[in-house]
Design a protein that fits this description.
This protein is mainly beta. It contains 1 helix and 11 strands. A hairpin with a 4-residue loop joins strand 5 and strand 6. The longest helix is centred in the first third of the chain and has 14 residues.
């Protein structure tokens, strides 16, 4: 009988999500790092969901090297737990944004910096799950380096819309995957400013990263391991 009770308690520990608390009102802050890619849609074409992550060389008609791209973005984030349904997050990303057609006849690649403030709705209504999906929206700012000269910037306001998921490894560490679409307030990032019909550039960021809740780390009095009832 005692073995049966032990087995049931072990199963409860493995299968019941309430032991994975992660962010709570007691430990509301989480800090993250993420990497990913930033894709383009605009006057030159649609690069959404191309997942072009391989660096490439681009040449003119005389086979002179014009540009070599370095696809990818990286950044940091901070998230504040509000309640079981909502979080507030701030993201900073730096990297390359661009596009090339299938035959490389049209292309551009620009360095970007972006800041986004998002309100996340955890639509399952609870943060006490192994997997927590969410949707988010908010406001953002982005600057685009129009040339290789660092002070030639295009400043943009953005309207981000995101969907993501958090996978909790333990009470202190989570994996976060997110896709974020954004409308921008400008149209010169792709070197084509005026086209009819007028349509501002858009971007789509795919990122994956790690979230750490410091309050649940052992050095701050927490435990990274799930807590199971003693027998």
């Amino acid at each position: 009988m005692k073995k049966l009770v032990a087995f049931l308690c072990l199963g409860l520990c493995i299968n019941t999500p309430k032991f994975l608390t992660a962010q709570t009102a007691k430990h509301p802050w989480a800090f993250g790092m993420q990497i990913g890619i930033s894709e383009y849609r605009g006057d030159l074409g649609n690069g959404f969901f191309d997942f072009a992550i391989t660096p490439s060389n681009f040449y003119d008609a005389d086979m002179n090297l014009i540009q070599r791209n370095s696809p990818g973005i990286a950044g940091v984030s901070i998230t504040r737990y509000l309640n079981s349904s909502f979080d507030a997050s701030a993201y900073y990303n730096h990297g390359e944004w661009g596009y090339h057609s299938s035959d490389n006849s049209s292309f551009f690649f620009k360095r970007i910096n972006s800041v986004d403030m998002l309100l996340k709705w955890k639509f399952l209504g609870s943060d006490l799950r192994y997997i927590t999906p969410y949707i988010a929206t908010g406001l953002g700012y982005r600057n685009v380096h129009l040339t290789n000269i660092s002070n030639t910037l295009q400043h943009e306001l953005t309207l981000p819309l995101a969907i993501g998921i958090n996978l909790k490894f333990n009470s202190a560490i989570s994996l976060q995957a997110q896709t974020q679409f954004a409308f921008t307030s400008a149209d010169a990032g792709d070197n084509i400013e005026v086209q009819l019909p007028i349509r501002n550039d858009q971007f789509l960021n795919h990122t994956i990263g790690i979230l750490i809740t410091p309050g649940n780390l052992p050095m701050f009095g927490g435990s990274p391991r799930d807590r199971c009832p003693k027998l």
